[in-house]
Structures are given as C-alpha cells and as structure tokens.
Amino acid sequence: MLKQKPTFEAIEPNFGHSYMYQRFDASKNNKNHKWHYHPEIELVYVNGGAGKRQIGSNLSYYTNGTLILIGGNLPHCGFTDKLTGNRSETVIQMKANFLGNDFFDIPEMKKIQNILEVAKAGVVFYGNTKEHLGKKMEALEHQSNFERLLSILDILHGLGNTEEFRILNAHGYSLEADTKDNDRINIVFNHVKNNFKEEISLPEISDMVSMTVPSFCRYFKKITNKTFVQFLNEYRLVHASKLLAEQPMSITEVCFACGFNNFSHFNKSFKAFTGQNPSEYRKQLKTILK
Description:
This protein folds into two domains: 7-167, Regulatory protein AraC (Jelly Rolls, Sandwich); 179-289, Homeodomain-like (Arc Repressor Mutant, subunit A, Orthogonal Bundle). It is 43% helix and 16% strand. The protein has helices at residues 110-118, 127-139, 145-161, 179-195, 202-208, 213-224, 228-246, 251-257, 263-274, 278-289, and strands at 7-8, 20-25, 36-37, 41-47, 51-55, 58-62, 66-70, 88-94, 123-125, 165-167. A six-stranded antiparallel sheet has the order 2-8-4-7-9-10, with helices on one face. Strands 1-3 form a two-stranded parallel ribbon. A hairpin with a 2-residue loop joins strand 5 and strand 6. Helix 7 crosses helix 9.
C-alpha cells in the first residue's frame, strides 16, 4: 500500500524578484503533479486543454483551460501533464506580504485583499474574466521586471473586481496544525489518487492511518466537510468526466474504468454530481468543442 508523506514545496522567488514566475509549454512541461502545499499564494492560467483540478477536498474537471487562485497552504495537485493538451501554462507564486506587510491594507487594495482572503478556499474564474486575464498572464513573458510587477497587480485587481468566479471549497477545508494530522489526510488523498479504480473499504483506509473506522469517519468529515465515500465517489466521477470528454469509450466502459461496479448507481451519481446524465454530458461537450 502507498503511504506517501505530504510534500511541502519550498518556493524561491526568481533572482532579483519578490515572486516566482514560470511559464510552461510543449517544450517545457510542468512536472509538479504531486499533492503538495506551500505558504505562497498561487495564480495559475492553463491555456486550452482539459484536465483535473484537485484543490483541498474539491475535485473537478476543466475543459478549454482554467484560471485558478489558490491561497497559501491549501493543498493541491498539478493541473497539467503530457495528456492535458494545453498550449501553455503560466504560474505566479507570491507570499501574502511580497510587497510589504501593510501594502494590501491601504484602501486602494481593498478588493485585492478581499479576493486573496477568498482564495484561502481556492477560486476558479470563468467567462470573460478567464479569457481577458489569461491573456494578460501570458503577456508577462515579454515584459520587463517592473512591467511584470505592475501587470501582476493589475491582474489581481481584475480578479478582485469580477463576479465570474466560483469558490472551490465553499464549506471550508482545514488542515490541523499537528503534522500527524497532515500526514494522515495526505496518506488518504494519495491512496485515493492512486487506487480509486479499485475497491477501497473504510476498514482498509482507516487502518492505513491507524484509526478505528468511527474515529476516521469523524476525522475525515471534520477536515473536508465530506464523508470519505462521498470524496471517493467524487474522485471517480471527475475521472469519468475526463474519460467521457477524451476517450471513445462506451458509457458502460467508463463506469467500470472509474471504479464503479454498478451502472445504475454510476448514472444516478453522475447526474447528481454534474446535473446531466453521462450521455447528455458527452453530447454537450461535443457541441462546445466543435
């Protein structure tokens, strides 16, 4: 069984900068796929492509790229790999006080301060905001150091002024201060990530973190605001969304490839999760992607 420790990512700003800026494309892939966390705020724009988002206890599937703002110490996985099909990925990482301890306290920065507070739960942006600010993030590549800093502020200002966003962990997500608790939840998340296609029983997962089943159920619900079964099924449903969009598999094949062993239960769960049954979901995606 996989018992992977939580990964703390140490981020060093680019030389001579107060933040970290990275751009990835076909010639330079982002290889940071693991479940990790860091104190820095992270802003990510994926240009095109489709893939999974796992941020805190939220699991979702994106198409045609994504724009995400993640608060400090909110665990997440990477958003692209060699199968995502995106054209590029731009990542900005900065400490909350990267411009000074009191900079965002001034009145002109109020809306930026507000969106950074909301980002503690993870935020995904859509619509014109994603397209407009995504282009501004891509334009950073050709700017001087000073222009890039002003542009980052402008982008954050845009994020703070839009209503085109969705909070990913709306009901909260918290990691306990105790390292042992961090270890436990990360062992669970990594085991689900690597074994969701197989049956994962409550006694099995409880034993992995040295807890009784009742204690584990209370602990997991406290941390994620979801039951373990709900979290596991959501992970499977996000993978089903990916397969329906990307693979020429029958819906029955998708069902069993995602770890479900009952087609009727899969159909019912998928509709409850996405608002559509699998065939409707696939049909709508084909219309959007034409």
